[in-house]
């Protein structure tokens, strides 16, 4: 009987990232997908700064940036003319090494992840579908439908449902998926074309309640159109053709379409599963939460789920932590998912609201306010922090404690950079570690050496103060680079007590 540590159902970005992280941490994974090949008509485009920061841990970030497209600006159109221009090339400058909006289509993204996963000797098993599973205190027994029509019974310690909005894992667990469905039909078209909207920037039409945006892709004259329709055409989504929706882009934004590479329609839901964990089975990505594409958050949130769960599973499977650590996956990720779904729902509802007042807000007020708001650094940074997910935190949750400087336990470690380098270089090691900015005690140095806990002491520099880091205390960092402890003292007994209380026995990870 085939046995693995973690059986992953679904090979989209969420499942692939989970498999990649676990493989890097020495966990035996098996990943299956019912599709015969990776997707070619994918919808997700944006790779947010927080995802790139975490990808830096596996040497993935450079490949994404090199093969993707950096968006220089966003433009808002009314009545066939651009009325507001928002520079994006350095919108998050000083906050992250990736202070820009990166476009890297999901199909290309998946191919990169598959290539990296194969370097670990792991291949996606295609045309393989989960028929069902049972779990006991000792593990999971799953039934798979194989490509040849046969069935296979296999075993795993844990099961990860990364199998999308129609998740078989979620349905087998009988977990509720409350929410609703947007009335609009979404369409996506990958086109070759020309005109003012093919200048490598993002363009959004504010004229009508139906959303329309032109996203730039790498390569000359390539773009992706994303839009909605809600009139009688939406009642026949299956028969909707590009010719039925393209005229608006042609007329409103002067788009000249030379070639249609592919066209797809879909409905969007806004839902969050009642639970992200049931015993040894977990839900991640679209299997756990779905929402409107406003802000380009969906794929990035699923990837965040995968990284959060990966290091916890690896710790428990290796005996470095007790099983209770896995309880924190749902606690941390479900809170963010609920907030995200509520936020994207409000944004999308505003953008697509119908009626004269909504039209006035979109076509008159928004073009006036957008340049005004973004002329202030604080407004630009707030916008970037929110969309890029660098503001996502686990404050007040079981694994988070303390405050030092402006940094709380549960925060992402702030990035600090000057001519002497940055403080993220050591984060490439997927392990617990301690950062000190300034001086620390001999006791802290000796304790970390004795317990093989990496300690990085940075000479105090002005850049650290600007980033909000505290001087002469310490930050205990989790393997996913979130702050576990923010402390103003340099007493190692604080760390010792933390690990004891959370059932964490050792700190080894992947270098």
From TrEMBL:
Cofactor(s) needed by this chain: FAD
Keywords, in A-Z order: FAD, Flavoprotein
A Pfam family of this chain: FAD_binding_3
The keyword Flavoprotein is annotated on this UniProt entry: yes
MF (Gene Ontology): FAD binding; oxidoreductase activity, acting on paired donors, with incorporation or reduction of molecular oxygen, NAD(P)H as one donor, and incorporation of one atom of oxygen
Domain FAD-binding: 4-343
Transmembrane intervals: none
Name of the molecule in the record: FAD-dependent oxidoreductase
């Amino acid at each position: 009987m085939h046995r693995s540590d973690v059986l992953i159902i679904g090979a989209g970005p969420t499942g692939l990232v989970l498999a990649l992280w676990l493989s890097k941490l020495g966990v035996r994974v098996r990943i299956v997908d019912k599709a015969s090949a990776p997707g070619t008509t994918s919808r997700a485009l944006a790779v947010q700064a927080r995802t790139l920061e975490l990808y830096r841990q596996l040497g993935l970030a450079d490949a994404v940036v090199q093969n993707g497209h950096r968006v220089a600006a966003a433009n808002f159109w009314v009545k066939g003319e651009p009325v507001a221009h928002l520079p994006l090339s350095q919108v998050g400058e000083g906050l992250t090494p990736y202070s820009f909006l990166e476009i890297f289509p999901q199909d290309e993204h998946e191919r990169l992840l598959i290539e990296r996963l194969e370097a670990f000797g792991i291949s996606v098993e295609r045309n393989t579908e989960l028929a069902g599973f049972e779990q006991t205190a000792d593990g999971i027994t799953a039934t798979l439908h194989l490509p040849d029509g046969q069935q296979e019974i296999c075993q795993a310690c844990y099961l990860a449902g990364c199998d999308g909005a129609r998740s078989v894992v979620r349905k087998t667990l009988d977990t509720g998926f409350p929410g609703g469905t947007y009335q609009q039909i979404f369409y996506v078209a990958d086109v070759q074309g020309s005109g003012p909207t093919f200048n490598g920037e993002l363009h959004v039409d504010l004229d009508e309640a139906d959303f329309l945006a032109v996203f730039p892709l790498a390569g000359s004259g390539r773009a992706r159109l994303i839009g909605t329709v809600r009139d009688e055409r939406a009642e026949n989504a299956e028969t909707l053709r590009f010719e039925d929706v393209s005229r608006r882009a042609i007329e409103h934004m002067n788009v000249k379409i030379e070639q249609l590479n592919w066209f797809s329609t879909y409905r969007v839901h806004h839902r969050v599963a009642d639970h992200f964990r049931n015993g040894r089975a977990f839900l991640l990505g679209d299997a756990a939460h779905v929402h409107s594409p406003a802000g380009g958050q969906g794929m990035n949130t699923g990837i965040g789920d995968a990284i959060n769960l990966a290091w916890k599973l690896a710790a428990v499977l290796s005996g470095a932590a007790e099983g209770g650590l896995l309880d924190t996956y749902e606690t941390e990720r479900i809170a963010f998912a609920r907030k995200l779904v509520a936020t994207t729902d409000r944004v999308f509802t505003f953008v697509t609201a119908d009626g004269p007042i909504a039209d006035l807000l979109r076509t008159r007020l928004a073009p006036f306010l957008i340049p005004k708001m973004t002329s202030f650094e604080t407004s630009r940074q707030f916008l970037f922090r929110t969309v890029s997910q660098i503001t996502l935190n686990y404050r007040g949750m079981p694994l988070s404690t303390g405050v030092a400087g402006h940094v709380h336990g549960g925060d992402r470690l702030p990035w600090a950079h000057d001519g002497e380098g940055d403080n993220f270089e050591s984060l490439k090691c997927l392990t617990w570690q301690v950062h000190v900015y300034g001086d620390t005690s001999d006791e802290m140095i000796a304790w970390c050496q004795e317990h093989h806990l990496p300690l990085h002491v940075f000479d105090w520099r002005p850049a650290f103060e600007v980033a909000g880091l505290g001087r002469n205390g310490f930050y205990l960092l989790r393997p996913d680079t979130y702050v576990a402890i923010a402390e103003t003292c340099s007493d190692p007994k604080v760390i010792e007590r933390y690990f004891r209380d959370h059932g964490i026995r050792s700190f080894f990870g992947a270098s």
